[in-house]
TrEMBL record:
Organism: Candidatus Nitrosocaldus cavascurensis
GO terms assigned for molecular function: alcohol dehydrogenase (NAD+) activity
Entry's EC annotation: 1.1.1.1
Name of the protein described by the UniProt record: Putative alcohol dehydrogenase protein
Domain of life: Archaea
Record keywords: NADP, Oxidoreductase
InterPro entries named in the record: ADH-like_C (IPR013149), ADH-like_N (IPR013154), ER (IPR020843), GroES-like_sf (IPR011032), NAD(P)-bd_dom_sf (IPR036291), Zinc-ADH_QOR/CCCR (IPR051603)
EC main group: oxidoreductase
Length: 377
């Protein structure tokens, strides 16, 4: 099969388009004919290498995958026909630890837990074929195209899961406990449809055009938030407003804290999505008494300096986020369909041009997901 293979860490020249042996599956694995795989920052980190994180070479990148089953699957946990459309739940999980048993697979505590194509012994989707555990297959019965379906399994899932979790925390902090909410989907719907609650909610996310950024803006808007986002250059301003942002801050020219405070009349926001690692800025932008900061990345910095006193004086809350569960992925697909949300796609590259796709991401001039289309038709 054709694949883009990494034989060492390095620049984009380390991505080699070549022939590679097709994977062989055991009885609990299935072979997926990859249609598309979107690029995530994780792919760039793995290509370059991160201190203390290992991969076994040769390695194939790519964690955000859509494709077709290459044979009928008749497994106790899954019965599907050859050719069925699927997406791949990206987290390799043990299925038996205390978190996997309650359907919180992204919290899996097994030493083998990893993201397919990431810092993992599992090869990813920059290839025509991919083998994955049966338990990672999610049937795709959705209105999304296969390119769109390859854009939602990492950034969209993480954004959805973070906002949903933050809303559950807000419910407690703001004393909405009197409302009986049977399921978390109902909680999201409840908050999305209850104007008295949501009218005043505000969210700040960095990088309106990043994977996490576009997804957060789209989800937060249908949930009724006032959305503030940053961009790194003037040309992204219009796109960010067109996506639905209520305020866009050009971080190359404007001071983020000052603009957020001006827009929120000095109050600050209810929720900051920080995938960048600028905690000091994030904490300064939080509303006193109830502000929540969801952290899922460190694009700008692995280390951060925070002033401790303002943090606890505000009664701020910080939580770390890592993907979401399989159930949330299915729920999110339904939520997107119900609210007519389609992932924003910046560009589509052929598999042999994976290096160009990485260059585009590293130049930060994308707005939305960069997709590698593996299928030739
Ligand atoms: N924990 C998880 O499960 C999870 C899941 C998905 C992603 N992540 C992480 O989240 C991060 C984003 O991933 P992604 O795929 O969405 O990346 P991406 O599309 O490449 O977006 C990164 C964007 O961040 C913005 N940015 C960079 N430095 C900044 C700074 N100092 N201040 C404000 N904005 C800045 C840039 O936009 P502008 O130049 O326009 O400002 C850039 O385009 C990565 O670190 C990734 O590893 C984590
Ligand atoms: Zn587990």
């Amino acid at each position: 099969m054709k694949a883009v293979v990494l034989h060492r860490h390095g620049g984009v020249d380390a991505l080699r388009y070549q022939d590679f042996p097709e994977p062989l599956c055991s009885k609990d694995e299935v072979l997926v004919n990859v249609h598309a795989c979107s690029v995530n920052r994780l792919d760039v980190w793995v290509r370059k290498g991160l201190a203390g994180r290992e991969v076994r070479f040769p390695h194939i990148l790519g964690c955000d995958i859509s494709g077709y089953l290459t044979s009928d699957v008749d497994h106790p946990n899954l019965k599907m026909k050859k050719g069925s459309k699927v997406v791949v739940y990206p987290m390799i999980h043990c299925g038996s630890c205390r978190f996997c048993r309650i359907g919180k697979e992204s919290r899996c505590i097994s030493s083998n837990a990893s993201i397919i194509g990431g810092f993992s012994s599992w090869h990813g989707g920059y290839a025509e074929y991919l083998k994955v555990p049966v338990r990672n297959i999610i049937p795709l019965e959705s209105y999304l195209s296969m390119e769109e379906a390859a854009s939602i399994n990492i950034a969209y899932l993480t954004a959805y899961s973070m906002i949903k979790y933050a809303m559950r925390l807000m419910r407690d902090i703001n004393g909405y406990d009197d409302v009986t909410i049977a399921t978390t989907t109902a909680a999201v719907d409840y908050l999305a449809n209850t104007n008295t609650v949501n009218d005043n909610l505000s969210l700040l996310v960095y990088g309106a055009g990043s994977g996490i950024g576009v997804a957060s803006v789209q989800f937060a808007k249908v949930m009724g938030y006032k959305v503030i986002a940053t961009v790194g250059s003037q040309d992204k301003l219009e796109k960010a407003y067109a996506l639905g942002c209520d305020l866009v801050i050009d971080r190359s020219k404007q001071d983020i804290v000052r603009e957020v405070m001006k827009f929120t009349m000095g109050e600050g926001v209810d929720l900051v999505i920080d995938h960048v690692g600028i905690w000091d800025t994030s904490i300064k932008c939080l509303k006193k008494g109830s502000g929540i900061m969801a952290v899922c990345g460190a694009t700008a910095s692995e280390h951060t300096n925070v002033e401790v006193r303002p943090f606890y004086n505000k009664l701020a809350l910080i939580f770390g986020a890592y993907l979401g569960s399989k159930k949330e992925l299915v729920e999110m697909l339904r939520f997107m369909q119900e609210h007519n949300i389609r992932p924003v796609i910046d560009s589509v590259f052929a598999l042999k041009d994976a290096a160009l796709a990485h260059t585009k991401m590293e130049m930060n001039n994308h707005f939305g997901k960069i997709v590698i289309k593996v299928a030739s038709i």
